[in-house]
Amino acid sequence: MGVLNVTPDSFSDGGRFLDRDAALEQARRLIDEGADILDVGGESTRPGAPEVSVADELRRILPVVGALAGTFPVSVDTSKPDVMREVLNLGVAMINDVMALRAPGSLEAVALTDAAVCLMHMQGTPRTMQQNPVYDDVVTEVGDFLEGRAQAAQAAGIRQERIVIDPGFGFGKTTAHNLSLLRQLGALRARGWPVLAGLSRKSILGKIAGRHLGDRLHASVAAALLAVERGAAIVRVHDVGPTRDALQILRSVLDDRFSIE
Ligand code: HH2
Predict the structure, then answer these.
(1) pLDDT tens readout for residues 129-146
(2) For residues 72 and 70, what is the distance between their CA atoms, to the nearest angstrom?
(3) Of 96, 114, 130, 123, nearest in space to 162 by CA
(4) Rounded Cα distance, 164 and 173, in Å
């Protein structure tokens, strides 16, 4: 899954793709590099990010979503049911919700369609989440939350095969919490839904590798590889080409019948 943020303030690419042509050029680049899904976002969820109105979010994303939906699998990163309804009408393939469809009306908005949904875990809100994240057992608590949300989605009429779960790396988690979740991603996979992992360029990688934001490519590729090796079905990344190469190598090693002749 390639990330396309049409925002002025996303943590790593804010402001770069606000212009429609720049966004579409980046979309084409991500597709050419081998993305299977494009995740378009119009509201930053970085720690401390301000909220964005429905009108502003739609103004940012609709030019891009309108141009791509129906021609390529598009996911929209939003927590607002009004935004979900608009983009679902345009035929997007997935809603990616960092609030796991907790906003009133969002379960129903998705249930009325055939779109897939990514349910993500977050402790707190983007404004407060990194202040003091606390868990007794992060892997069990995140898993229980996601299982509960997936069951709520199914009870609302969203079929199991349309649901993906995501531990939400960096969303109300310390470095130790993030590492426990990555180490035990298999336990999340064992809950029964495919897992999406988003570690690309995140500050946890910067802390571990000692790298600033513009210099986290290698760490991001390593993290994506480890996530897939531990069972992630989808990795959400800014740098599709390098990630794709690494995943091809992983695939060749994991599959004894792999052959390129
Ligand atoms: N991370 C970000 C945004 N959306 N969605 C899912 N499912 N999983 C994630 O880990 C995730 C996400 C944060 O990254 P980014 O989009 O680059 O930044 P921002 O939120 O500042 O736009």
Answers:
(1) 888 899 999 999 999 999
(2) 6
(3) 114
(4) 20
pTM for the structure as a whole: 0.96
220 lines ligand 1 (CB under 6 A): no
* AA identity, residue 212: H
Asked whether 44 lines ligand 1 (CB < 6 A), one says yes
φ, ψ for residue 232, nearest 5 deg? -65, 135
Is residue 234 predicted with pLDDT exceeding 90?
yes
Neighbouring residues of 73: CB distance < 8 A, sequence distance ≥ 6: 36, 37, 38, 93, 94
Is 103:81 a contact under the CB 8 Å cutoff?
yes
Does 57 contact ligand 1 (Cβ within 6 A)? no
pLDDT of residue 261: 77
> Which helix (H) or strand (E) segment is 74 a member of?
strand 74-77
Q: Which atom of ligand 1 is nearest to the CA of 43?
A: 22
- 236 counts as catalytic: yes
Q: Does residue 202 carry a catalytic annotation?
A: yes
Please give the Cα distance from 182 to 54 (Å, whole number): 33
